[in-house]
Amino acid sequence: MNFTSLVAYLFRWTGFGLLIGLLAGTASAFFLFALEWATQTRESHLWLIALLPIGGFLIGWTYYKYAESSVKGNNLLLEELYQSKSPIPLRMTPLVLFGTIGTHLFGGSAGREGTAVQMGGSLADQLTKWFKLSHEERRLVIIAGVAAGFASVFGTPLAGAIFALEWMLSRKFRWRSLYPAFFTGYIAHLVCANLWGIGHTHYSIPEVPGFTLINFLWIIPAGIAFGFSGRLFAQTTHFFTHQFSKWVSYPPLRPVIGGLVIAIIVWFSDSTTYIGLGVPRIVEAFEQPLPWYDWLVKTGMTGFTLGAGFKGGEVTPLFFTGATLGNALSTWIPLPLALLAGMGFVGVFSGATNTPMACTVMGMELFGYESGLYLAIACFIAYVFSGKSSVYGSQNLEQKIHIYPKKRYFSLDRWFKK
Fold it and tell me: Transmembrane residues, as ranges (predicted)?
């Protein structure tokens, strides 16, 4: 690339980055504000949980009637990146936005990353309608949109860019995608946090021990546990999705049945700990011992919610699962409780999404760089031991390092097939 081409490239993607960052950052700001409102309203009026089946029907019917290809969610972004069939519909943004708010308002267990990423990707891809973009430029636009959505919803601009690049990597890395991803992610973060004043949850790891051989050896079993947990989370979601599709042919009815089951569980357990985002419980995981089964219950509740057809992301429930699993492991592993919770927070995320670099950087942005080595090792081990599994069915895993043979022994679908 000569100097003139470089200047043109920077000028073009600075303009696109500003536009995409403004759109995605604003969308994330509104989403986070609305999500906080939905959570507070539900917790103040617990009777709303009884309406979860009705809310589920409204969400399911709306998607059945109007979503078309948008029903694929994050997988549509991956498919368009790999195959580039047609522009991502703009309708994806309002559908996933209000679908997720409804899920949280009435008590489903879901996250927010999927919503922000889908909004960022769909808003960014509208540029293909407004400008004459080549196939390669469209790829960069989608990557920039994903980076913007992730960075703004979590307040982690570096991790947002790396997540988009790592998650959407297909065989060959293209250096041209670096600037759009990092610049757009940073702009979206500034728009959400500074322009609109939306804050993010703060976590703390007050004690990080010196890195020794003994401590390194203790990271290994923890990382393996996080990898298995990530795999279990992904396969639980796929399992329930398959079962609902198999036994309930009318899509709007699936979240009605799922919502009824969840409402009954919450009623009899008399606890709202495992619905919604679960951020308060995540914060507690860094501060005090919790019941050992928290991570397992959240895995089941989220997999069931998303499998039934409710909308939302997987990442915050993965944070919940990882932080509480790390908290539980502190009983046997002699590392500080908060450090294990932080390692699990990003480790399970790494295993379920196959993005160890993004998860490591995210952990350092959230918890501080002092814990970086522990986080990096835990994320890589979890990534390896999670096998060829992902919460995103369309993710390209051909090049993934894994330890499993082709025959799968750890598969819920295999166990329950008959």
Answer: 6-34, 46-64, 140-165, 177-196, 216-234, 255-277, 332-354, 366-385
